[in-house]
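Our working data are protein records whose layout never changes between entries. The record below serves as our worked example for the rest of this section:
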Amino acid sequence: MVLVVFVRHGQSESNVNKILSHDVHSYPLTEEGKEQSKRTARELRKLKVGKIFTSPVLRAYQTATIIGNELGLIPIIDDRLKERHLGDLNNKRFDPNSHWKLKLIRGEIEVKDLEPWESMKRRMTDFLNSVPESDSVVVAVSHYDPIRALIGHILDLDDISAYGISLPNASMTVIEHERDKGSLYIHSLGSPVISSTLLSKLNRYIISTNI
C-alpha cells in the first residue's frame, strides 16, 4: 500500500498576476501563499509523513520547505512533479474569463511546444509507481495541471473532460495505491483540510494521538 498526499503549491505571484509560467526560479509565494502552506502543514501533522518530494519550481519548493519545516523533513526535488511545460504560453498573462484551453480546443489559438496531457499523465503515474510501500505517508508538492492529469488518469478523463476539477492553492489530493490489486483510490480531492472522516479511513497512516 502506498499513500501519497499531492499538494498544490500555495498562492504565488504568478497566480495573483494571472501569469502562466513553468520557469524554475520565478514567481515566489505571496504572503498569503506562505500562510496557506503553513495551514496545510498543520493538517499534515495528523498523518505519519515519512518523506516530502517537490517540483523544482520555486513556488512549489517554497511550499514544500514550509511543510518540511513543520514536519522536520527536508524536501527532495523530483522533476516529474514539475509544472506543465507551457511552450509559447510561458510567462504570458491569461484571461480567467476566456480560458486558453477552450480557445485551444476550439482552434482559436495555436500553442507550440505545449506539453501534452498524456506526457503529464505518464510522468505523474511514474512518480506514484516509484514510491515504495510503507506505513508512512509521502507528500508530493506539485502544480495544478500535473495533479489534475494524474486524477484524469485514474478517472479516465482527457484534458478538457477534466476541465472542471478544482484544486485550490495549497489544497490536498490524497491518493492510495494498492499495488497487489493494481487499484488506485482518490480519498480526497483538492481539500484544504484532512477531515475526521478521512482519518477514519486511514488508520495505519495516522499518528497515534489522532486515533
In short: The chain is about 35% helix and 20% strand. Residues 2-210 form a domain with the Rossmann fold fold (CATH 3.40.50.1240).
